[in-house]
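Thread: quick sanity check before group meeting

JM: Hey all, I'm pulling together slides for Thursday and realized we never actually wrote out the predicted structure for the chain we discussed last week. Dropping the sequence here so it's in one place. If anyone has concerns about the input, flag it before I start.
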Amino acid sequence: MKKIKFKFKIAAFILVALITGSSAGQMVAKAAEIPYETYNYNYWGDIVITPAAYVPNGSVQASDLGITDFKEPQDFCYSDDGEVYVADTGNNRIVVLNSDMSVVNRVIDTFTNADGAQDTFSAPYGVCVSENNELYVADSNNGRVVVLTPQGEFIKIIENPQSEILDDNFAFVPLKVTVDYADRVYVIAKNAFEGILVFESNGEFTGFFGTIDVKITAWEKFWRRLASKEERSNQQLYIPTEFTGIDVDDGGFIYASNIDSDGIQAVRRLNPQGNDVIQKGENSNVGGDLEFGTYGDYAGASEITDVVYRDKGIYSLLDRKRGRIFTYDKEGNLLYIFGGLGLQEGTFQTPVAIEDIGEEIIVLDAGRDSILRFKETNYGSLINEAVSLRYDGDETDAIAKWHEVLRLDENNELANSGIGKAYLTQGDNELAMKYLKLGKNRKYYSIAFKRYRNDLLASHMNYIMTGIILIILLIVLYKKFNVREKIRQKLQQKESVRREASN
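JM (edit): ok, ran it. Output follows.
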């Protein structure tokens, strides 16, 4: 993987744009209106500047809503009925906002538990609302998941998981929680390296889910054998990695993010058996930035801290290291990148959670103690719509959307590839080859080429067979003529010999 300082490359692109003319200058001017770079990667893994897919759309502070400031909030979720639930961790409360986050509907900081006693939260770290409209709170310091109605009425508590597969000294500290359509509860817990903890709807712990295997290279194994006992104890422990964020799609597949130091795969799509079925794009990477520096505060791979499944196979990852938001489609293609760290409006200090609410993406910033809002631009909307149409099988309308994307970003490989795939689905293999070549999509270009070749052979089969038959006939006739000519020549030779002998 290339590890170069991508900020320098972005600056170089902008400099080239300034030199090359007025249209490029307009592009840079528009880019300067937002407080972060908007870019993507081409087939070769190089940075290319793109129009912005999302732009800042304000922020929400608790003080603006008539309540005390948020204090290091760590998670939030968006419910089906349009409410936003914020886990205000430092204040030991859940704050419920209306759909446009302009009004506090209620604050849940106490509840009456099963024995009738008043109870409270202690550092509630994660929050989600199930399809059955039940509120799940990862009450971290109390070592439990509290289940309430949206109004804060007690339903049940999930705590103290018991199993032979758990260590005797295991302490249950839930951090993030989500629930599938069958009311199975998935919990990311502190120091639970074996995977995500799974509980049935009755609270029974059933095991771990989606363990990340850490691979050790042959070189690392060799040096560990040579190292002393003390040296080995000081080296990195080769244990599975903890997950950082979790979400569930409509089909019950679990999306779980994790920190990947190599920047190759920082999200998994886990089927009901716990197997990872994530698809990867042309660059075989679903881990954030492809290029990054090796020195400085922001060196190293992206650190993905949360994931949100949006719709139609689209999901977004939140990078806490550089404040980026990376969005992918079901096939693992990187659609667009936006966001950044800083003090300007629209940049983050400590981004911790991400949600999708219609045409907006919202990010919870524990450093700013606020929610930052981003609205989609025409460019972002067109990409989202094109991907959604392809997901639904509506290839004709998808082509029109991708052409609109190319009008805004003429070198967009994703758009060319999308058009090529659509034509491939429609059976127009020649046009598919044209656009897939522009999109540098070797995989689908090979498919289109094979189909085009087969179509070509099939459409000209009569002529080909006629030609083959004619060639065979010519060969047969030639051989017959050749044989007769040889016989004639031999007869002539014999006649010449006979005449000479008689003389």
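AS: nice. The first helix runs from residue 6 to 20. The chain has a mean pLDDT of 86.
JM: adding both to the slides.
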